[in-house]
Write a structure and sequence with these properties.
- It is a single chain.
- The protein has one domain (about 5-160).
- The termini are close together.
- Helix content is about 70%, strand content about 0%.
- It is mainly alpha-helical and about 160 residues long.
- The radius of gyration is 16 Å and the shape is globular.
- The chain contains 6 helices and no strands.
Length: about 160
């Protein structure tokens, strides 16, 4: 992995609770809150200069802006929810450029697993643990925050262990 173990360890304790909260809110309410997304972006803005070389930090900030613009257009085209687009933009700077292919593969695998697990739980007795969750009642929409939050958390954990 291109991310350094040091950088992943700096980001992980701050990003992990935000990823968990994103998963919860998207399952429970089908919403990724603006406060969570802003907090995730703030973690990078504040911790990034400590964890990364300054020139790399600036490139990662630019990647966040590019991801936000692309996400806005994808949301406008009906391809994804606004919260999903904003979360992707806030999560983008945490990912080292050399790890993009790995993260895309991790996302694809996680998305398939999250979909299968969510749908299986929806029709199982597990649903009784949280019967009020909005995501159980959605026929066509899927709580993408389940996969997005899991991917960022897993990437940072893997980076902490296997990073450069």
């Amino acid at each position: 992995m291109e991310i350094t173990s040091s950088a992943a360890l700096w980001f992980l304790p701050f990003a992990l609770p935000l990823c968990a909260y994103t998963i919860y809110t998207d399952l429970a309410f089908m919403r990724i809150t603006n406060v969570t997304v802003i907090a995730l972006a703030a973690v990078f803005v504040l911790i990034g200069p400590i964890a990364l070389p300054f020139d790399s930090y600036l490139w990662h900030l630019l990647a966040m802006v590019v991801a936000l613009v692309v996400g806005i257009f994808m949301n406008a085209g009906g391809l994804m929810g606004a919260g999903d687009a904003k979360f992707i933009a806030a999560a983008t700077p945490f990912i080292a450029l050399g790890d993009v292919r790995f993260v895309m593969a991790l996302f694809m695998a996680t998305l398939v697993a999250a979909y299968i697990i969510h749908r299986a739980a929806k029709y199982s007795p597990l649903r009784k643990l949280a019967p009020q969750w909005v995501s159980w009642h959605e026929a066509k929409k899927f709580p993408m925050g389940l996969a997005l939050g899991t991917v960022l958390a897993a990437y940072l954990m893997l980076g902490a262990y296997f990073g450069a």
